[in-house]
Amino acid sequence: MTPSKSSGSAPDPSSNPTPTSASNPASSTGSGPWSDLDRPPLSAASLRRALVRPGGLWTVLDVVQSTGSTNVDLAARAVDDAEGAVLIAEEQTAGRGRLDRSWTAPARSGIFLSVLLKPREVPVERWGWLPLLAGVATATALSRTAGVDTALKWPNDLLVTVDGEERKAGGILAERAGAGDAAGVVLGIGVNVTLGADELPVPGAGSLALAGAKSTDRDPLVRALLRSLEQWYGDWRAAAGDPAASRLQETYAAGCATLGRRVRAELPGDRALVGEATALDADGRLVVTTADGSREAVGAGDVVHLRAE
Fold this sequence. Notes:
This protein is α+β, with helices and mostly antiparallel strands. It has 2 domains: 44-254, BirA Bifunctional Protein, domain 2 (2-Layer Sandwich), CATH 3.30.930.10; 262-305, SH3 type barrels, CATH 2.30.30. Helix content is 19%, strand content 26%. It has 5 helices and 14 strands. Strands 1-2-5-9-8-7-6 form a 7-stranded mixed β-sheet, with helices on both faces. A 5-stranded antiparallel β-sheet has the order 13-12-11-10-14, with no helix packed on it. Strand 1, helix 2 (70-76) and strand 2 form a beta-alpha-beta unit. Residues 1-40 are annotated as: Disordered.
């Protein structure tokens, strides 16, 4: 994602040498654990060498073959783990999105990871910007490395275009973890990478492969994502979480497909708000302007993009 929403540069040349194919995302042969040649396993050792370094944000990086939820697992470690712990799963059997929605995908078909952040320099009231920050970092990395234009749907969905249609290819889930001096946030990031049309969990879903990605090799995608997240988080933390000073607010707004659109916000208490999404306020809330000109800031709820009348 860039402010102009243009596709980025070619994939990172440090990618895993195992060949992948975006043209046949669901192909497989044989019955062994690594029989799907288009979905090779990630190498924890390779990722650690590339990402875990003295003075860097990422302190420990683990890859597990299968787990219920990386967010749940990492939250359980929040008190003992230092900031910068990364947990990646090849498969999640109980992945969740916002509003407790389930998130399922075939093994090794996507990026399923969580990171532990403890931004002590930032006032707690600004921690709500973290899922939006993760969205900016992820969209930017995917645009540059996969060569797929990636937009943001407020507050936490990653959108790609498949056959001229806007599709959800990923999402962000932020959860508080730990307490006291060990308090932090676990950010979960999920991205559909090689899912084929017959593997999509719902008709409105998409994947990088279906969007015409130049590369579906998860190794360089994970590297680019975590490097982008480290950069954006570092700038935001250095600015004490100020969304304007860190340029987070303006960058999110520039890449947000929700702004300028007619939307329906389904709010707590079975209330719905229909109008145009006109701005993102200083707290990361979506400002909706209704037909009578009134403005309301939405901080929680489900937002649906409506067709223009």
